[in-house]
Amino acid sequence: MKMYIALNPRLRLTPLVWVLLTLMSVGFVVAMIRYVNGIGAISNLTNAYSWGFWISFDLYTGVAIGSGAFIMASIVYIFDLKEFRPLLRSAVLTGFIGYIMVIIALLVDLGRPERIWHMMIYQNHTSILLEIGICVMSYTAVLAIEFAPVVFEGIKWQKFAQLIHRFIMPFVILGVVLSTLHQSSLGSLQLIQPTKLHPLWWTPLLPLMFFSSAVCIGLAMIIFESSLSSRAFGRGLETHLLEKLAKALPIALGIYLILKFGDLAFSGDFQYLFTSGTMSWLFWGEIIIGVLIPLFMFLFKRVRQSPSGLLFGAVTLLLGMILNRFNVSWFAISRSTDIVYFPSWMEVSISAAIFAAGILAFGLAARYLPLFEHEES
Amino acid sequence: MKPIKQYAYLFDTTRCIDCRACMIACTVENQVPMNDSYIWVAGKDVIGEYPNLKRATMPYHCMHCLEPSCASACIVGAWQKREDGPVVYDDTKCIGCRYCMNACPFDVPHFEWDKGIAGGALITKCQMCKQRLEVGQEPACVQTCPTGALTFGERQELIAEAHKRINTHPTRYINHVYGETENGGTSYLILSHVPFKELGLPEIAPTPVNAVSETVMSGTLPFAFTWGAVLTGVALLVRLRNRGKEIAAAEVIETEKSTEETK
What we know:
The complex is a heterodimer. Chain A is mostly helical. Chain A has helices at residues 15-37, 53-65, 68-78, 85-109, 118-121, 128-154, 158-166, 168-188, 206-232, 239-267, 272-275, 278-297, 301-305, 307-331, 345-368; strands spanning 2-5, 372-375. In chain A, helix 4 runs antiparallel to helix 15. Chain B has 2 domains: 7-216, Alpha-Beta Plaits, CATH 3.30.70.20; 220-262. Helix content of chain B is 36%, strand content 13%. In chain B, a hairpin with a 5-residue loop joins strand 4 and strand 5 (87-89). At the A-B interface, helix 1, helix 3, helix 6 and helix 8 of A face helix 2, helix 3, strand 6, helix 7 and helix 8 of B.
């Protein structure tokens, strides 16, 4: 009989847990300094670099790697592929924790975090950022609903779990729509900078680029996160399922690649591929690491069936795509100053603390909630 | 009724002597520290090759665009283009996201990096001395300018005046009024004797930079509903097909059973 189990209901303070707690404490102290003395007291952000590491890493990367949840929900619920169910719960949890991390990071990055609710009452309907704000907020609520049955099962409130499960479909569809919107809107967010964002990245198709790459990132995230948790919690890897996901990746990456180069050819920006110095290098970096290498790797059955091949391909794809998010939101934007921004250690410590809290939260959930499917003989 | 005048500035590089009195006047009028002045002056190095050398100074402040991208980008609508010219800021709405700083093609809005929660960090920028406009006065920078390099008035009249100066001295000026069409037109107009690029002014098309993002944004809700309907349709179709398969599979088993029974 198949059932979901909690892994190991004993909390041990391993060295890893101590490292995570230390990172969280440091970040907490730094955040307090920020709330008392201002963002300038802990960051290297300036008027020329009003957005920096936090936006590129916590918002752009965080939302991108949270895409596994909506990809998995689409596969299991919309396409009704029940065999993928074992991967669903941890993917939804990763997304849920990821989005809460994004929100916490924004509460540090916003100049007036105590006014974040203003976006609910003073809505400006031409603002792409409003769309992202509303979508991220609503989607986090949807993820909470999608994950609630697991919590209710964990505390043995089966009736509630079944009740939510019966009415899950509208929420799943809402979740996929919200994800489509805000994954693409993170691209649209830079549309307003046609004079600042380098032409290798600025295109009216930015939302489409972001959505199609988010599909690739989501698939890779499921592979990555299943591989890691199978190693961390010493459980079997669903290689046969991951292989099928990996098989879809060359197609998804191929579509993205055609969009990217088709757009450059169409807009006449092809020349910049080789003539823009650092920018050309950054562009080729994200294409080769994030698209070409994983596309090529996942064409081979041998790679798709090997746990290390799957992990390596997924990590390569993720690194390249993260470089893309950094390029669009940071590296490829021209500035009115020659001073180059580099994040301070305190800026990074905020992100590290939030990341550590996320890992700890996932670890705790894996221990105490029925997250993974268990084959019982 | 008298139509509302749309005010604008006109700056003429050939009249500027780089005294920076405008900066001082601005900081005094708006009660801001010198390093947070709403005007920042860039004294450009010597331009050109000997013996054709030129110098130019450019005082920057808000361009007061006719279609401001800060107002388009702002998540809470804290920016507003007033009919009489200035792009003004509602500091009670702002949440400090700093998207306006990204959106502005002229990098005008600045942020109070040294203020915490209690201090209430906000965005700062020139608001055309709106407190002075209300009492019928010119902005402080214009009133202080000793050479008339900065002037203030009705936008159309200033554009006419700028073209008149170009026509009177065609060799002195670059034949273009910066801000007449840039980014859909601005309320800070600039006349220059050196190329505008040398002044650090970006080359911007007459289409406002927010045009594409606003088009995308206006399509969002229709797209969301269509996409939701498509997903619902796909989910229903898949289930219908799967159920058909299950029934077919069940029928196969039934027929197999019955054939076995007849055997």
